[in-house]
Structure formats: C-alpha cells, structure tokens
C-alpha cells in the first residue's frame, strides 16, 4: 500500500497489506544499469544502489531516478534507527533485493537499512570510510526532504 510515510518530510512510503514473514525477499530493485564512470558521485543519487563484484569493487549502479525505471520498491524509505528497521538490503548475484529481518504485521511501513551481506561504502556506518564522509552523510540526511520516491542508497551520501 502506498501512503504518507511515517518518516517526517519523506513523502510517500510503502506499507504492508498482509503479514510478511521474516526472511521474505522482495525485488529485484529495478532501474537503468550505469557503469561507475557514468555516475556523478557529487549529485543526489538517492534512487541508486551499487552492485559489487566478488572482490568488493563496484560492478555497476542500478539507477531508478527516471520515472519509467521506477517500481514500488523506490518508495520504501530508509529506517532512522535499528528499532524501526524491518528490511535489509541484500545483493543476490548481480541483483539488489530487500529482505524482511522480522515478521511484519499488516499496515506497517516497510523501512530498509543495510544488511551485513551488502558491502556498502561512501560513509555508511560499519564499513571503512573517513570521518568527513560520515559527517557529510549525516548532514545530507538531516537536510534531505522529498515528496517522491526515496532510498537510503549508499550513493546518496553526496550533496543534494
């Protein structure tokens, strides 16, 4: 169900219609495939996920910023803390999925954060990065406001 997000200033979010069992995978996240050299890391890339090679290098980005490449998954918002997280992002093969980390009751907003299986970077907590990147990510998250789709993409650590 698409409705007003419980996250202030984030526009529309996705809510469960029925019970969702822990471990349920949703996806894949769809969009245009972009090679790393075609991505402007200084632009707001909040509708983009990185797909990694086995060695941890970026294979490509999945960009859902164009409306014709969006699915309902682009409206899933980022959890603000561990307590409200009910989905994690996982890479399976060369695709991105969201996986329920707990059983989710009907009418609960789906909120995603990074799982241990997704090697994220660009200042995301729990992975190597500079303090400056972490501070910039925090500042941008505080300033981010949108009425449209949003994701806590690792690529969103750049300025808006």
From TrEMBL:
Any one Gene Ontology cellular component term annotated for this protein: nucleus
Top-rank taxon: Eukaryota
GO BP terms: neurogenesis; regulation of gene expression
One Pfam family here: PRDM2_PR
Gene Ontology terms, MF aspect: histone methyltransferase binding
Ranges where the SET domain occurs: 1-115
Region feature (Disordered): 124-160
Keyword entries, A-Z: Transcription, Transcription regulation
Biased composition (Basic and acidic residues): 133-145
Ranges of compositional bias, category Low complexity: 146-160
UniProt xrefs under PANTHER family: PR DOMAIN ZINC FINGER PROTEIN (PTHR16515), PR DOMAIN ZINC FINGER PROTEIN 12 (PTHR16515:SF20)
Protein name: PR domain containing 12
Source organism: Nothobranchius korthausae
